[in-house]
Automatic annotation (TrEMBL):
The chain crosses the membrane at residues 21-41, 53-72, 79-99, 181-206. It holds the Pfam family BPD_transp_1. PANTHER family: AMINO-ACID ABC TRANSPORTER PERMEASE PROTEIN YHDX-RELATED, MEMBRANE COMPONENT OF AMINO ACID ABC TRANSPORTER. It is a multi-pass membrane protein. This is Amino acid ABC transporter permease. The keyword Transmembrane helix applies. It comes from Streptomyces endocoffeicus. Keywords: Amino-acid transport, Cell membrane, Membrane, Transmembrane, Transmembrane helix, Transport.
Length: 214
């Protein structure tokens, strides 16, 4: 317990850093993921192609490589931001590809007749998607999106290698001070467990309220 009690402020700072990364990157991932899913089912070929390329590239690119591309590449184009913002961009964009595929799978569960009925009433593609298809698809994609965001929370550990304050990075100063590396990582694991259980609880609540009965 000494590792935790004597360094509670350090653990707390890392814990809050991970929570912030998870929340902001999740919001970005959800926004981009839903947008890319809309692109992938759009009637415009160029949008479908863009969505396909986005998903294919990001799903097949190692997250660490994406971090290097964002952290080192964007400043070369004059975009200089705090490393935390770069980390959110890398995490959010990477996870959006998986959110996109989950949402697209949910869209495919909606009967085709729903969209045809909406179009017969004169609704546009945007109106059909937002008012008819996505609300029904949302009920089936709650579990996979929850799992994806849990993975995002754990992937945020990579940000510590790029001077971003997060939970895993707390082991470095503690190791230098001579604390037991085993207990250092035990409390880090407890912190991640708290975060992932919180995400699981939120999505379990959403699933009980809006999920498809099984």
């Amino acid at each position: 317990m000494d590792v935790l009690t004597q360094n509670f402020a350090l653990y707390g700072k890392g814990f809050l850093g991970t929570v912030q990364l998870t929340v902001y990157a999740s919001l970005l991932a959800l926004a981009l993921g839903i947008l890319m899913a809309a692109f992938r089912v759009a009637p415009v070929a160029s949008l479908r192609a863009f969505g396909t390329v986005w998903v294919s590239v990001l799903r097949n690119t190692p997250l660490t490589l994406l971090f290097f591309a964002v952290m080192l590449g964007l400043p070369r184009f004059g975009l200089v931001l705090p490393f935390t913002v770069f980390a959110v961009i890398a995490l959010g964009c990477y996870t959006s590809a998986f959110i996109c595929e989950a949402v697209r799978a949910g869209i495919n569960t909606v009967p085709v007749g729903q969209g045809e009925a909406a179009r017969s009433l004169g609704m546009t593609f945007d109106q059909t998607l937002s008012a008819v298809v996505l609300p029904q698809a949302f009920r089936t994609v709650i579990p996979p999106i929850g799992s994806t965001l849990i993975a995002l929370a754990k992937n945020s550990a990579i940000a510590g290698s790029f001077s971003v304050t997060e939970l895993l990075g707390t082991y470095k100063p503690l190791n230098e001070q001579g604390y037991s590396i085993i207990w250092t990582f035990v409390w880090i694991a407890v912190g991640y467990l708290i975060i992932t259980l919180a995400i699981s609880a939120v999505f379990a609540l959403l699933e009980r309220r809006w999920g498809v009965p099984r």
